[in-house]
Amino acid sequence: MNNIKESMFDGIKYLIDRAISKAKFDRTEQGTIISNLGNNKYTVRIDGVEYSIPSSLPSSIVVYSVNDTVLVTYFKNQLDNAYIIGKVVK
User: Fold this and answer.
1) Which among 49, 15, 18 has a CA at the least distance from the CA of 32?
2) Cβ burial 58-90 (10 Å sphere, 16+ → b, else e)
3) 56 CB-contact burial (10 Å; exposed 0-12 / middle 13-18 / buried 19+)
4) Cβ neighbour number for residue 51 with a 10 Å cutoff
5) What does the alpha-carbon distance between residue 65 and residue 16 come to, in Å, rounded to a whole number?
6) Contact 56, 44 (CB under 8 A)
7) Alpha-carbon span 14 to 19, nearest angstrom
8) Maximum Cα interatomic distance, the chain, rounded to a whole number of Å
9) pLDDT at 2 (0 to 100)
């Protein structure tokens, strides 16, 4: 009986994750700055994966440092439309 419950849970989780990944809403994730690539772009690690992401603010206003925790917004949930919106203040 437990195997049936686990299978049902796994199936539901798969369907939910799939639906969320295709949804057309903005989402925001926390990431860590790994390196400054220049030209206002940074390597950011989010959930163990590294991405090259631009900052929404010009470098004359803010420059992020290695190990800074930042917020990254995915416009319409698209990785190609991701940008750093700011630093997380602890």
Assistant:
1) 49
2) eeeeeebeeebebebbbeebeeeebbbeeeeee
3) middle
4) 14
5) 35
6) no
7) 9
8) 61
9) 73
pLDDT tens-place values along the chain, 90 residues long = 678 888 888 889 998 888 877 778 888 999 999 999 999 999 999 999 999 999 999 888 899 999 999 999 999 888 889 999 999 987
| 70 neighbors 88 (Cβ within 8 angstroms) | yes
Give the pLDDT score at 7. 87
Helix (H) or strand (E) holding 34: strand 27-38
Burial of 35 (0-12, 13-18, 19+ CB in 10 A): middle
DSSP 38-71: ETTEEEEEETTEEEEEEBSS-TTT----TT-EEE
Q: What is the pLDDT of residue 60?
A: 84
